[in-house]
Amino acid sequence: MTTPARLFSRGSYPEATRIAELLRRETVGGVLLIVGAAIALVWANSPWSAAYEALRDTRVGPSALHLDLTLGTWAADGLLAVFFFVVGLELKREFVAGDLREPRRAVLPVAAAVGGMIVPAVLFVLVNLGTGDGALRGWAIPTATDIAFALAVLAVISTHLPTALRTFLLTLAVVDDLLAITVIALFYTASLSVTPLLLALLPLAVFGFLVQKRIRSWWLLVPLALITWVLMHESGVHATVAGVLLAFTVPVVRSEAAGGPDAGPGLAEHLEHRIRPLSAGIAVPVFAFFAAGVTVGGFSGLAESLSDPVAIGIVVGLVAGKTIGISLATWLVSRFTRAQLDESLGWPDVIGLAMLAGIGFTVSLLIGALAYGEGSLRDEHVKVGVLVGTLTAAVLASVLLRLRDRRYRLIAEEEARDADADGIPDVYQRPSAEG
């Protein structure tokens, strides 16, 4: 008789320890992201707001290459390419050697991510049906989850979230990022120039050849990456896609991605170790600084922004759409497959996690600028909608997870008592019910 698979069940111990270490790094980046956004909001609504706008709109770069871009655009197109390179490395590591390589482990986060994308998009469309004026172009804005922001909220509320749910949150975000990248490439490419796009394949191929040969020389890899980015930017495809494509060429060794003690210094691990601090500590916070600086104009200005159906659709999509989509997809998997919820968890845990996934920021703001034009009035309304929706989802998730905090703490204490002299909890050494 086949034993049903457990939803949110524990993965391997090396995988759990690698995920835990990753979460600690992402948490720091999330805090920096929040700080960058907060500084931008305060500055943009201060008497010195004109100085903020002048800084954001300052143009730098060679005009001959069509790269005389504003600092805000450099942050969105350039710095976020670094962020998406790290995302691409994590995506490949998860699909090649992480939990997503096993179909029965991958089905839940994939289904949850798809549900968490479809329902917010549908709710946004329903709110904006019949409004005209190109409002429906922003249907994808509330579909993204900002994992760094979400993990920063977890750090602030100091929950003892079980490892199984933490792993699920990260895995869901990985799939969510893949879907977001696909949406940007397919639906937010205004015009396509085939020649630069085909030319971009040449430095991309050389980069791939070098990394497959385990060559780590930055003076070879960085120029090739920059050329790929420039050509992708010239093609009309959003330049951040170049970061993902470059990451996908980096080889992943299964033992390396598992993160165990025998994992060698693989190239994917090496590049992620080197570049993640740049992404989390500089790229994303600087993007947040330039993207979040919306002039609210007091309560009346906030009310005016939120009267736009686009802003309303974003708030509804992030808060209600993510919660309903992820929770419903998880229930459907447990209802119509042999998978069952792990006995240590309850459905309030799932709902709390789904609410937490409603924290959209980085990719949501990026899609908003692509949909309505950077700096446009509607883009300003998008920023207000994303900020209000994100804060609302964060508060609701914090309240629910705070209520569950005592349960999480008891689970953590029980696992600590199970630890042997080798420091590995017994629960990771027992025969798996799924095996």
TrEMBL record:
Q: TM segments? A: 27-44, 64-86, 106-127, 139-157, 169-188, 194-211, 218-233, 278-299, 311-333, 345-372, 384-403
Highest taxon of source? Bacteria
Q: How does it sit in the membrane?
A: Multi-pass membrane protein
Q: Which GO terms describe its biological process?
A: regulation of pH
Q: What's the chief localization of this chain?
A: membrane
Q: Which reaction does it catalyse?
A: Na(+)(in) + 2 H(+)(out) = Na(+)(out) + 2 H(+)(in)
Sorted alphabetically, the Gene Ontology cellular component annotations on this record are: plasma membrane
GO MF annotation list: sodium:proton antiporter activity
Pfam families, alphabetically? Na_H_antiport_1
Alphabetic keyword roster: Antiport, Cell membrane, Ion transport, Membrane, Sodium, Sodium transport, Transmembrane, Transmembrane helix, Transport
Compartments (UniProt record):
Cell inner membrane; Cell membrane
Which NCBIfam families does the entry mention? NhaA
Q: What does this protein do?
A: Na(+)/H(+) antiporter that extrudes sodium in exchange for external protons.
- What is the similarity comment for this entry? Belongs to the NhaA Na(+)/H(+) (TC 2.A.33) antiporter family.
Q: What PANTHER family has UniProt attached to this entry?
A: NA(+)_H(+) ANTIPORTER NHAA, SODIUM ION/PROTON ANTIPORTER NHAA-RELATED
Question: What name does UniProt use for this protein?
Answer: Na(+)/H(+) antiporter NhaA
Its gene is nhaA
